[in-house]
Structures are given as structure tokens and as C-alpha cells.
Sequence to fold (140 residues):
Amino acid sequence: MAEWICTGQFVDLLSYADVAQQAFSSEHSSTLHLAIMALKTLYKAWSSCAERSKYLRFATSLQAAATKVDRYYEKTMKSPAYILAILLDPVGKMAYFKQHWPEDLHDEVLTTAEKVVYQPNFNFMHRSDSFASSKLNISS
Fold:
């Protein structure tokens, strides 16, 4: 019986990843702008579960998984593709950055957008300037 309880808890934990993946997967529309939010939501869910006694047997694995999600979050924030996808979302625009990023990086978001638009040889896939050296923590 205990094995089935453990299996059920594991399935519950995996459902958070499934929901996150479904949040930015679509055959009919662009969902890149949702990826960052989905990663943050997954991080918060797994971090929260790691602290609950119900999931004690999974705590170490959940913490490791949350750390891995945090690394991916940081990588996406170094990519102008993700930054522009959020900026170009008509609903969100700059709101996500204002809510979740330190104020000193707000101008960097706009600078990134300007570079992509006005510099035809800009490396769209990876930033090497201040964002790359800034530590954005998903837990904030």
C-alpha cells in the first residue's frame, strides 16, 4: 500500500511539469512568451512541495529539479528571443519585467529590443552584455 501512495505522490509531482509544458505548447499559436512564466510557476510549485512533509521522501530530488529549472530560467533571460516574445505579447508587454525583474534591468529590456530592431547583425540567440552577467533569481 505504501508503494502506491508513493507512486501517487510522484505522479502528482510530475503533473506540475506536464502543466508547465502544456502552457507553452500549441500547434495553433505562438507560445514562446509563456515559457518563462511556465518555468517560474514550475519552480515555485516544486520548491513549495519540497518543503511539505507530504513530499519529504522527494525533497532532495525536488530541490535538485527546482535548481535545474532555475538554470533554464536564467538561460532564457539571456536570450533576446524570449525577451522580445514577452514584450510583443499584446496583453503583457513590459508588465512581466516590471513585476518580476529588478528595476535596474528594465532599461536593459528596452535596450535589447532596440538592438534587435536597429542592428541587423545582432546575435538574436544569446546575449553577452549585462544580462548575461546579471543573476536573475527565479525565486524572487
Summary: The CA atoms of residues 26 and 32 lie 10 Å apart. The radius of gyration is 17 Å. The mean pLDDT is 82.
